[in-house]
Amino acid sequence: MPVVSQTVRVKVLFFGRLKEIAGQGEDSAEIAAGASIEQLFAAFASRHPELAKFRTSLVTSRNQEFAAWSTPLHAGDEVAFLPPVSGG
Amino acid sequence: MTVPLHDDQIFFTREAIDAAALIGHVRAAEDGAVVTFDGCVRNQSHGRHTLYLDYEAYESMALTKLREIAAEMHTKFPIHCVAMAHRLGRLQIGETSVFIAVSAPHRPAAFDACRFAIDTLKRTVPIWKKEYFEDGAVWADGELPPVPAEAPARKSAS
Predict the structure, then answer these.
(1) Strand spans (E) along chain B
(2) pTM value?
């Protein structure tokens, strides 16, 4: 394991088909401070390769607001990966 | 006597939605119209016979989004009150999945606001449904909500 200067823990949520692929709706991850949501997703996609297929057809949120993939993460953030919504 | 500015009622439920209660909630003496939308579970999807649906939501965020929709309705349309309920869990054919009631002094605003509410809900609120058929199940085709632009990763613009 490479030694990183500073890591932070974030909460990660999966919904819909992503939850089925990830095997659970809620997880947590230890990432480099300031890493982006994109990097966080890549870490999960390497663990669950099937996830990568959905990268272009999902959106993300940080602390319950829709967020850009480039959004940097901080300790305690709650990130969610959201498939196309189909309420109603 | 003080009257709250907006006495909107917005919630998720795992039980049958009581439409009459929601209509009763929004209806007041100063209103000339109550417009409702009753979204119900259809018995087929893309030509396949549907058995039932399972709904799930990112509940805390979805509730915030529903409240934002209601707030926007009050900004955009001269309405009186909004009630919005969305069901979660397993729903059978014919059951109500979402119910919206809007009251207003005059009907155009109530119609417009109700239409705005369901259209925006379907596009932006993190809710998902899985459709079960005799020969399998699929997550319903949905819409990708608009998200903030990429590029300059600014710190909490909101």
Answers:
(1) 9-13, 33-40, 44-45, 48-57, 81-87, 89-92, 96-104, 127-133, 136-139
(2) 0.91
Q: Which residue of B has its CA nearest to A71?
A: B153
Report residue A85 as tokens.
Answer: 């919504």
User: Could you tell me if residue A21 is inside a domain?
Assistant: yes
∠ Cα B136 B139 B143 (to 5°): 155
**B1: in domain:** no
Domain count, chain B: 1
Nearest to A72 among B98, B147, B153 (CB): B153
Q: What is the CATH number of the domain that holds A54?
A: 3.10.20.30
Are A80 and B158 a contacting pair at CB < 8 A?
Answer: no
β partners of residue B85:
B11, B99
Does residue B6 have a pLDDT over 60?
A: yes
d(CA B4, CA A8): 43
Which residues from A are below 8 Å from B145, CB to CB?
A: 59, 66, 82, 85
**A82–B58 C-beta distance less than 8 A:** yes
Chain B contact for A59, CB < 8 A?
yes
Q: Is the pLDDT of residue A78 over 60?
A: yes
The count of domains in chain A is 1
Q: Which domain holds residue A36?
A: 7-82
Q: What is the mean pLDDT of residues B28-51?
A: 96
